[in-house]
Amino acid sequence: MTDDDLSSDRRPYRRSGPNQCPSTCDQLHVAVICALPLEADAVHALFDHHWDDDGFPYVKAPGDQNVYSVGAIGRHNVVLTWLPGMGMANSAVVAAGCRSTFPNIRLALIVGICGGVPSTPDGGEIVLGDVIISDGLVLYDFGRQNPEHFVRKDILLDSLARPSPEIRALSAKLKSLRPQKILQSQVAEYLDALQSQPELQAKYPGKDFDKLFEPAYRHVSDGKPCDECCRDEHLEPRVRLQQSAPQPVVHFGLIATGNTVSFYRSISDFGLLINLPELQEYQRSVLHFLYPFGSEFEVQKDRNPERIAGTCEWFINHERFQHWQGTECSSLLWVSADPGRGKSVLAKYLVDSIISKSNSTTCFFFFKDALQGQSEVTDALRCLLYQIFHQKPTLLSNDVAMEIEGVRKSQNFRDL
Which GO molecular function terms does the record list (predicted)? Predict the structure, then answer.
């Protein structure tokens, strides 16, 4: 930011800048990396010029498998690239490829959606739609998993590198009053520009989608949105949401990064994850970590034949089953028989027709010695955890999530 930027007048959205494509890759100095298409769409929409409408204008370095868009934002020529998937490994591959093709990149920005704590250290409120600018990164899932808890490594040799002195100085400048005022104004200007493009469908979803419950409050129903099952008297009051049209605010602070996903009870209403499609990916990531085969357990169940009409009814009418099904106490019903006597057929019938129609949480797993994914105790445990968290996502508390993250796909049953 130069003195020319510190003008009290808003610049028009179509900014002055380069009017032709740089002749070589060496002339691009700014890179933007996005993980999701909707994030890249927002960046793309702010390009003042597109230099690749007729195809990528350069030759990529050998081994670079990235996909790029090249254009100009203001005075800067910018290269935009997409991650092929989530995770730090993908980020490292993309960064290395970008550096090899564009060797003079001086500033690389990762732009996207993030979760956030509900308040700043000085008590300021953070609400849906605010802008977070990182002045440092914390690698939160690098450490040691002890039997009782996870210990993050935070010594200097194990930490991510600090931003360069130039970046730290720019961050300090943007935090001062006048530059921050102009930055806020420019954020509002560019947001207006994005919202003026109907194909983006960029709009504020409304205060009803930004509910913050008390830290001790637990979501109470199976996968239902909070407006159907949670009581508003447990909401935390927030002053900014009392405004008729809350405006986004720019915040500065540390950003946590890593390969695992955390759900913190006190950050936000879990119903937000259910209602906003952009954020459902994070919930799916945890479930995929637990049981990467997804709904394969349903297929495993359905490999068993259907019962013949009239069979299995003796079992559900037996007094022991009736007592087990009706008791409110925790109890175990053990069914045993020789191989080939129909235990799997009975279990499939119970899951499909009897137990699943009750108010209980129903989980199941079918062992098969000869089939991969059905022969190990860890397979069963992962599958059962998957079903529990899928049906009751609010059980993914911070403590549970940290336990899952610390295990890191261990194949040891005792660790699990």
Answer: catalytic activity
Q: Closest by alpha carbon to 371, among 307, 293, 305?
A: 293
pLDDT of residue 26: 92
96 close to 61: Cβ distance less than 8 angstroms: no
Domain ranges in the chain? 296-324+336-407
At residue 411, the pLDDT reads 40
H-state helical runs in 202-295: 226-229, 271-275, 277-290
Q: How many other C-beta atoms lie within 10 A of the C-beta of residue 97?
A: 19
- pLDDT tens-digit readout, 124-151: 888 888 898 988 777 766 666 555 555 6
For the stretch 81-90, pLDDT in tens is: 998 877 777 8
- 199-208, 270-279, 304-313: segment of lowest average pLDDT: 270-279
Cα–Cα distance between 190 and 73 in angstroms, integer? Answer: 11
Cβ pair 242, 161 in contact under 8 A = no
Phi and psi of 372, rounded to 5°? -65, 135
- In angstroms, rounded to a whole number, what is the distance separating the alpha carbons of residues 70 and 59? 13
Q: What would the two tokens of residue 190 be?
A: 């560019």
Structure tokens at 89: 């490994």
> Is the separation of the CB atoms in 54 and 88 below 8 Å?
no
Cα–Cα dist 115/273, whole Å: 10
301-314 CB burial, b ≥16 within 10 A, e <16: beebeebeeeebee
pTM of the model: 0.57
Read off the pLDDT band of 410 (50, 70, 90). very low
Give the chain's length.
416
Environment class of 373 (CB within 10 Å of its CB; exposed 0-12, middle 13-18, buried 19+): middle
Tokens 């009290």 sit on residue: 8
